[in-house]
Amino acid sequence: MSTGVPTLPPGLTFAKGQATGNDFVIYADPLSEIPLTADLAAALADRRYGVGGDGVIRAVRASALPDGAAGAAAGAQWFMDYRNADGSIAEMCGNGVRVLAEFLQAEGLIDSAETDLVLIATRAGNVLVRREDDIYAVDLGAWKFCGGQGAVRRGCDCQVFVRGIDRPLGGLSVNVGNPHVVVKVSRQELADLDLTQAPVVEPAPVDGANIEFVQVDEGEATIRMRVHERGVGETPSCGTGAAAAALAAWAWAGAAGPTSWVVRVPGGTLRVRMQDDLVELAGPAVLVAKGVILPA
């Protein structure tokens, strides 16, 4: 009879890292010999029977990818294969890619000449990660408001229903390599949110979305944020979500709005800067443990 306990691969070497409380299990697979399946990701991320994390990252040399994928990753040394805690695939992760950069540097897996600047391939395209004193800044590349300028003028393109607030809320859909819906709330509403259940978005995003609830202080260019991540639940932080929140706040503020924002999440503080059609995310990344999976 099945016990329901996830199966872990004995002998797998891994690291555990976190970035503003968003935590990840990471393992290096240079030659792409240990596929990150949905079952493996869910087993590693399980907080009772596995290592525990909001997601799992597999570091694969770009040269070991299939021909088509290797071509798309041209110029990058490493590919970030990423799955959420439930095993579902995510295009990329802004906090996770910083943790991956720290892991590659700590393990000596990037050229010494590039320890302060590394190009990492993701399913959302290549991202450039730069060491900046004791934090990492990530050029997330192009972004877009999914509903176009009409949504920007209205301030929203969907409705969001969440426990703790008894009215529908307007949400603005933003793609930062992965899908987000940003919702403006008051500071009290932010505190009252119940994110133990997933918010409902109408119309529902085709691929799902991370939902960011934000209280915006335009004068201080500061955002307070809580997030419900697809495939995970509420997390202490979301890097691409912070970028999406800043882009939404900038749009709501109008053309004269700040282009640099401080985003305060339960797990810490992130910085977001916009320039032309690009957005940069900066914040800490820390490795907290290394280990090996033991035989059952």
Summarize this, please?
The protein has six helices and 19 strands. It has helices at 38-45, 67-72, 94-106, 148-154, 187-192, 239-253; strands at 13-19, 22-28, 55-61, 78-84, 117-122, 125-132, 135-142, 144-145, 158-161, 169-175, 179-184, 200-202, 210-217, 222-229, 233-235, 260-265, 268-275, 278-283, 286-292.
Would you write up a description of this structure?
- This protein is α+β, with helices and mostly antiparallel strands and 296 residues long.
- It folds into 2 domains: 13-141 and 284-292, Diaminopimelate Epimerase, Chain A, domain 1; 144-274, Diaminopimelate Epimerase, Chain A, domain 1, CATH 3.10.310.10.
- 19% of the residues lie in helices and 40% in strands.
- The chain has a 19-stranded mixed beta sheet that branches.
- β10 (169-175) and β11 (179-184) form a beta hairpin.
Task: Give the CATH architecture of the largest domain.
Answer: Roll
CATH superfamily of the largest domain: Diaminopimelate Epimerase, Chain A, domain 1
Q: Class of the largest domain, according to the CATH hierarchy?
A: Alpha Beta
Q: Distance N terminus to C terminus?
A: 17 Å
Number of helices: 6
Do you know the CATH topology of the largest domain?
Diaminopimelate Epimerase, Chain A, domain 1
Stretches where pLDDT is under 50 for at least 5 consecutive residues are none
Beta-strand portion reads: 35-45%
Report helical residue fraction: 10-25%
Largest sheet: 19 strands, mixed
Helix-strand pattern: EEHEHEHEEEEHEEEHEEEEHEEEE
Oligomer: single chain
